[in-house]
Amino acid sequence: MELATIKNFPPNIILIEDDSVQCKMIERGLCATGATITPVISKVALSKVRYADCFVVDLDLGAGEVGAEWIITECQKRKQWKPQVVIYTGCSDELFVSIKNMFVQFGFKNVVIISKRVPNSLVLLCEAVSAKLADRKSNASILQPNFTKNGLPDNIKINDWSLYQPVLQPQVCAKSSHIISAEVLCRMVLASGEIVSPQYFLPTLKKQGLITKLTLVMIEKSIKEIYEHMNYPIDISFNIDYDCLQCEGFVNTLCQTIDSLDYPTSKITLELTENGYSRDLSIYKSLIYLRVKGYQISIDDFATGFACLSTLLEFPFNEIKIDRKHIVSLSTNKKIRAYLRAIEVFSSELGISVVVEGVETLAQREQVSDYNFDKIQGFFYGKPIFIPEFCRLLSKQNSEIC
């Protein structure tokens, strides 16, 4: 069974809108994306759609309200579909979180809600859709693989560590917009040069207890590549699952690996994901030990799961990352704005750095600049790229600054 790449399919936006005038206006606005726009006004019509990159749905109209159910039902039938969802609505800000949670509960991620009640709402709608498609366009060789019943791509060994390669996503200074660090992410690269997205292999690795091994592989590969292409260490961060911290010997192996590569611990941030989170004594001891060794410890996706203010007070964290889901509704949700202002205050008082994730548009960048945060990360500044390309980009920036 062959693997089909995204680049073999034109971008397809499914527009669920039963007002013909409004539909035409949105279609005209979305033409600039270069995508195919497919208006849908019935469940039968949606069932005939072969592929969807993004759904745009008006929740205020009859078809839109039913359309939300259509989207969820159809995507549950087609497990290979991983579309983005942009919602266009005139409902109150207070309902935004509930609407988004409805989609999240059914496996949708990165849902964006655009309010009709703000100025230039149609422009914001088109901008949001363009941002969603930008990821697809900039990663045109990422695969949409066919799966076996076990969830693995055909003919690919999940424990073939030579297939996994590190990529770096830039993190910029919130004040200067200069690249000052990067997050290490993982991609599976096939012999053909095509790339498989993490969503297709991480769940299987976790299920088979291989996530600890992948973490150590990524740490070693990325450090070696950075030293190969730069003559000095750069600030980088790695995602660490709590399951790794509870794995006997992991922390010692991690420290020994990094020490053997002669990489300064002060240049490394360990981002803790919430999977497997607990307040076990082993977690406390591991985090304290890592801080004593000089590592920076960060909470990823702050306030989306376990992570809250009490966590900051209990554990030796010195950085938090604000999840992108808080950024996408920043312009329309006053509760989110108040929440970010509170983070700004207590992080300053506690001496904790703040990284804002998921900034994809100029409008979002301008909104985030109203807060005194430290770093920004997102497609507005750069997609994840392979280490040689990142090092060239950083070297070019530094030479221009000098």
Report on the architecture of this protein.
There is one protein chain. The chain has 15 helices and 17 strands. With 402 residues, it is an alpha/beta fold. The protein has 2 domains: 4-138, Rossmann fold; 147-401, TIM Barrel, CATH 3.20.20.450. The strands form 2 sheets. The chain has an 8-stranded mixed beta barrel, surrounded by 4 helices. Strands 3-2-4-5-6 form a 5-stranded parallel beta sheet, sandwiched between helices. Helix 1 (20-30) crosses helix 5 (121-138) and helix 7 (211-229) runs parallel beside helix 9. The longest helix has 19 residues, at 211-229. The model is unreliable at 1-10 and 138-144 (pLDDT under 50).
In short:
The chain is an alpha/beta fold and 402 residues long. It has helices spanning 20-30, 43-47, 62-77, 96-105, 121-138, 202-207, 211-229, 242-245, 250-260, 281-292, 309-314, 324-328, 334-350, 362-368, 387-401, and strands at residues 4-5, 12-16, 36-40, 54-58, 84-89, 112-115, 142-144, 164-173, 179-189, 195-196, 236-240, 268-272, 296-302, 319-322, 353-356, 375-377, 385-386. Helix 7 (211-229) runs parallel beside helix 9.
Question: Secondary-structure blueprint of this entry?
Answer:
Elements: E1 4-5, E2 12-16, H1 20-30, E3 36-40, H2 43-47, E4 54-58, H3 62-77, E5 84-89, H4 96-105, E6 112-115, H5 121-138, E7 142-144, E8 164-173, E9 179-189, E10 195-196, H6 202-207, H7 211-229, E11 236-240, H8 242-245, H9 250-260, E12 268-272, H10 281-292, E13 296-302, H11 309-314, E14 319-322, H12 324-328, H13 334-350, E15 353-356, H14 362-368, E16 375-377, E17 385-386, H15 387-401
Parallel strand pairs: 2-3, 2-4, 4-5, 5-6, 7-10, 9-11, 11-12, 12-13, 13-14, 14-15, 15-16
Antiparallel strand pairs: 1-7, 8-9, 8-16, 8-17, 9-10
Helix pairs in contact: 1-5, 7-9, 7-15
